[in-house]
């Protein structure tokens, strides 16, 4: 009989800890009658934590300048022996290492699953629920590394690899050209680096879970910057975001959604993509009369960018979302006089939570994207000319 903890697995909402880009469920059947939990009303309370398996791609890039067209030998360790250059160019080899980690879930979660029940000779479906003991902590069980190599003859932007972030639980706040790390629960803020890029205003930052870099828009040059863990920046060879962009985030397909209250663009920043750096779509839109200054993608909450909008003259606050297919804004909830006006930075968490930092007073609020009542969680720094980013897959506060 399979051990119950191998049987069940959490999807999406149970992603947490560090550096995770994608979840792949285990797929193991079960041949016993509810050995793994006790049915309580509509839920099955699990006896043991569900297993979470995550697959994290880690990208490394090497660049070589070749003097002329020809066939060149590739260093050993790649999946091909040679690459063909059509002209004098930069050759770029991107290797993708896939790290698979499996560990027991240590946060509360519920998920629907199907198992084979021999008592009734058919499969059953139920909603399983796991509530960890108060002392539970994340534990890594296994880690395996497999490597595959892809190569591309196109110009290779990251000539020197810079340190990636690690999908940590913090919010990242850019204020003008200074990057801060914000503990959203306590409001404690530390400076990561100052004078980023050319030391002019950077805005519209978003965290790309596919490569663990933060991306942002530098308006003085109209370019996209890739920001490393230590705050070093690299200018990406990509289309320009809309002029004056101050809203931005990267979805889990590596698409950078960036714009203003009236413009938007979807720019491909998925490593290795054939259309990397290109604008996949763009257009104009309207924020329904609310002031909006940042948005977040929360995979579990559907194909939307969520934002906190406000109308200061009416002391009104609303949860809004931008539909990624219709490219139109809609209101999720209008809270009336909540007292949260002018949110410049928002941070997503993939359990359906948006953290919002109010510029004027630095208060950090939690908004359930379901539209339930928001509440203040901590006191962060007051700021302006700012934007926020966070690794949405980390579920630790
Ligand atoms: C960035 O610019 C500010 C003034 O806007 C200046 O005080 C600071 O020294 C500059 N930082 C760097 C690293 O050049
Ligand atoms: C969309 O992108 C094209 C090409 O970069 C640009 O000419 C056009 O102005 C953009 N449209 C909007 C609404 O930003
Ligand atoms: C806006 O509403 C909040 C909550 O009711 C209140 O505390 C605040 O004083 C109001 N602000 C103004 C400018 O009226
Ligand atoms: C998401 O996790 C945070 C941090 O643990 C928690 O405060 C919040 O209530 C959770 N949100 C939902 C919708 O479960």
From TrEMBL:
Keyword Signal: yes
InterPro entries (alphabetical): DUF6923 (IPR054215)
Occurrences of domain DUF6923 (ranges): 177-392
Signal peptide: 1-23
Keyword Signal applies: yes
Protein keywords: Signal
Protein name: DUF6923 domain-containing protein
Annotated organism of origin: Talaromyces atroroseus
């Amino acid at each position: 009989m399979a051990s119950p903890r191998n049987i069940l697995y959490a999807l999406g909402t149970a992603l947490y800890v560090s550096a995770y880009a994608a979840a792949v469920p285990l797929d193991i059947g079960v041949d016993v009658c509810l050995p793994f939990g006790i049915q309580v009303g509509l839920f099955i309370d699990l006896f043991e934590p569900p297993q979470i398996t995550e697959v994290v791609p880690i990208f490394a890039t090497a660049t070589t300048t070749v003097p002329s067209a020809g066939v060149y030998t590739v260093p050993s360790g790649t999946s091909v022996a040679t690459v063909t250059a059509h002209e004098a160019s930069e050759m770029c080899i991107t290797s993708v290492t896939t790290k698979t980690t499996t560990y027991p879930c240590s946060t509360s979660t519920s998920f629907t699953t199907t198992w084979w029940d021999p008592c009734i000779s058919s499969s059953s479906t139920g909603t399983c629920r796991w509530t960890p003991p108060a002392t539970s902590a994340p534990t890594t069980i296994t880690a395996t590394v497999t490597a595959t190599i892809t190569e591309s003859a196109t110009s290779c932007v990251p000539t020197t690899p810079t340190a990636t972030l690690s999908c940590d639980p913090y919010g990242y706040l850019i204020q003008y050209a200074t990057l801060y790390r914000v503990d959203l629960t306590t409001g404690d803020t530390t400076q990561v680096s100052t004078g980023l890029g050319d030391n002019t205003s950077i805005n519209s930052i978003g965290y790309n879970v596919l490569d663990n870099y933060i991306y942002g828009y530098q308006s003085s040059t109209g370019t996209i910057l890739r920001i490393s863990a230590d705050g070093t920046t690299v200018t990406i060879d990509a289309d320009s975001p809309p002029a004056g962009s101050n809203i931005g985030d990267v979805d889990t397909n590596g698409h950078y959604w960036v714009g203003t209250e009236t413009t938007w663009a979807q720019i491909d920043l998925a490593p290795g993509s054939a259309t990397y750096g290109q604008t996949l779509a763009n257009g104009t839109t309207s924020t329904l009369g609310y002031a909006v200054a940042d948005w977040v993608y929360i995979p579990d909450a559907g194909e939307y960018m969520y934002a906190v909008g406000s109308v200061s003259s009416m002391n009104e606050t609303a949860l809004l979302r931008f539909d990624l297919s219709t490219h139109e804004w809609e209101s999720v909830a209008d809270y009336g006089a909540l007292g949260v006006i002018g949110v410049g930075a928002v941070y997503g968490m993939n359990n359906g939570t948006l953290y919002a930092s109010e510029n004027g007073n630095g208060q950090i609020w939690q908004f359930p994207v379901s539209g339930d009542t928001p509440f203040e969680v901590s006191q962060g720094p007051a700021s302006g000319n700012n934007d926020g980013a966070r690794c949405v897959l980390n579920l630790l506060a």
